[in-house]
Inverse folding.
């Protein structure tokens, strides 16, 4: 299903992909005085707001986390994972449409456009992740014991995000309603995933339905490692892993089919 | 000598799916391709030998641009074969992919990477580009501050930074001042003498007559005439005259 030339193209254009990611950040901050500092300030402030508002004012407590900032820590862990997923999937949704003119006129392997988006989102995620860790440390919450799980959890997140984003991105070229629907669906999806609330707040009979959502297991894994300082429940990662792989390969198949007809309709 | 480009029996049709869902289902072989289609190119064949400059003429909408896009591989043919022996460089739309916040130099490097030139080579080419574009200190300023003429100069300079075996030029020369146009034509002739073949789309009949060795005429997706420029252009002019009566 993977065409060899696809992997070869990615390898051949690796320098371009890296420099395109740099350019994306460079041109975004070039004309601001603080420059790259903004890259850190934004996620830092987001994290800070959650901490102040949700801990000092709401004083919410969660069982299992021994900190006055328990709820903020829980929330931030989930939001970090969700942001990585939603950033990639929502930008892949329009990647081919946004670059339609370039695709029609310059010959280059199209697969590098999604690669750039994944790269940019991943750099953003890393920065957010690190600033979150610094805030956690300041709050007195240190959860580093199970960090070795993160690469696996991130990998499952990426597989799902790329799979869904690419699948819908290809459909969106031909049926533009897909983009509109997905933008709305992502908001519902956020609230159907235990990010703001936790699974045990739900009636037991409903919990099973929520685990059908692959993002449930993924987000709960982030929360396990980062907030509860435990290893994630492997069962909760296997299911999203399998679902993600299936969607990912379907997306690659669709992409290869659409590759021939894409330029006709853009 | 080996032909640089062999176009054999190229056809391009756009299928009219009455619903886009059917198009997607057809990828999974769940529905058949529709019978109703729009033909853009019909059985076009020609060859290009090294050092030939061939003008492509025809009215708007006869399939010139589609043909060039198929040759550069940004569009896929419905049937037929294309063989290119060597490298291809296309100037289809000047300034495509320029980033307004980057300087001319940074953009030049970036575009060369996008065109697939390996690392290191583009650094050698950059002084040639600066010389050819001849835009002075603007070369190191953000592209958003460029005039449209400077934009064209930079884009053309990047496109011809490496000598390809096949160069495709689509209406690109009509922009830029007389001095720069002359410079471009000199460059084209220099490439030709080194063995580059050139496909040149233009509505400027005088330029075609002066630089092309051969011309092909497209009419409603068919290649109707292939011969020396004088002959093809006079045939084309008769068709135009006939259509106006």
């Amino acid at each position: 299903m993977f065409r060899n030339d696809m992997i070869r193209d990615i390898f051949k254009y690796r320098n371009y992909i890296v420099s395109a990611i740099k350019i994306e950040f460079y041109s975004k901050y070039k004309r601001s005085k603080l420059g790259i500092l903004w890259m850190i300030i934004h996620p830092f402030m987001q994290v800070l707001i959650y901490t102040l508002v949700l801990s000092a004012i709401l004083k919410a407590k969660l069982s299992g986390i021994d900190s006055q900032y328990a709820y903020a820590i829980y929330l931030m862990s989930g939001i970090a994972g969700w942001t990585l997923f939603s950033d990639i999937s929502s930008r892949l949704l329009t990647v081919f449409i946004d670059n339609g003119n370039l695709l029609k006129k310059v010959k280059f392997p199209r697969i590098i456009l999604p690669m750039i988006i994944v790269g940019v989102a991943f750099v953003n995620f890393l920065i957010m992740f690190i600033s979150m860790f610094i805030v956690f440390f300041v709050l007195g919450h240190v959860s580093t014991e199970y960090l070795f799980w993160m690469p696996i959890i991130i990998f499952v997140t990426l597989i799902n995000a790329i799979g869904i984003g690419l699948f819908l991105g290809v459909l969106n070229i031909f049926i533009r309603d897909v983009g509109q629907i997905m933008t709305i669906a992502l908001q519902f999806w956020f609230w159907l995933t235990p990010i703001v609330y936790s699974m045990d707040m739900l009636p037991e009979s409903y919990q099973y339905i929520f685990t059908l959502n692959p993002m449930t297991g993924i987000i709960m894994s982030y929360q396990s490692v980062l907030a509860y300082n435990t290893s994630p429940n492997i069962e909760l990662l296997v299911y999203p892993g399998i679902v993600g792989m299936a969607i990912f390969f379907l997306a690659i198949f669709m992409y290869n089919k659409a590759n021939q007809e894409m330029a006709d309709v853009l | 000598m080996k032909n640089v480009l062999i176009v054999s029996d190229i056809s391009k049709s756009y299928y009219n799916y009455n619903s886009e869902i059917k198009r997607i289902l057809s990828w999974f072989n769940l529905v058949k391709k529709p019978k109703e289609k729009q033909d853009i190119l019909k059985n076009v064949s020609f060859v290009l030998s090294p050092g030939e400059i061939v003008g492509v003429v025809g009215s708007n909408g006869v399939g010139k641009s589609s043909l060039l896009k198929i040759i550069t591989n940004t569009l896929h043919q419905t049937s037929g074969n294309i063989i290119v022996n060597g490298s291809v460089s296309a100037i289809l739309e000047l300034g495509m992919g320029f980033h307004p916040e980057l300087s001319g130099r940074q953009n030049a490097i970036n575009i060369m990477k996008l065109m697939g030139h390996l690392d290191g080579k583009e650094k050698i080419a950059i002084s040639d580009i600066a010389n050819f574009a001849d835009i002075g200190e603007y070369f190191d300023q953000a592209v958003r501050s460029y005039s449209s003429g400077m934009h064209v100069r930079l884009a053309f300079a990047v496109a011809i930074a490496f000598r390809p075996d096949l160069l495709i030029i689509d209406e690109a020369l009509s922009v830029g001042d007389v001095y720069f146009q002359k410079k471009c034509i000199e460059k084209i002739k220099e490439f030709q003498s080194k063995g580059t073949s050139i496909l040149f789309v233009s509505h400027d009949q005088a330029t075609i007559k002066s630089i092309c060795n051969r011309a092909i005429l497209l009419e409603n997706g068919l290649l109707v005439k292939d011969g020396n420029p004088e002959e093809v252009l006079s045939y084309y002019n008769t068709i135009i005259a006939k259509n106006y009566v």
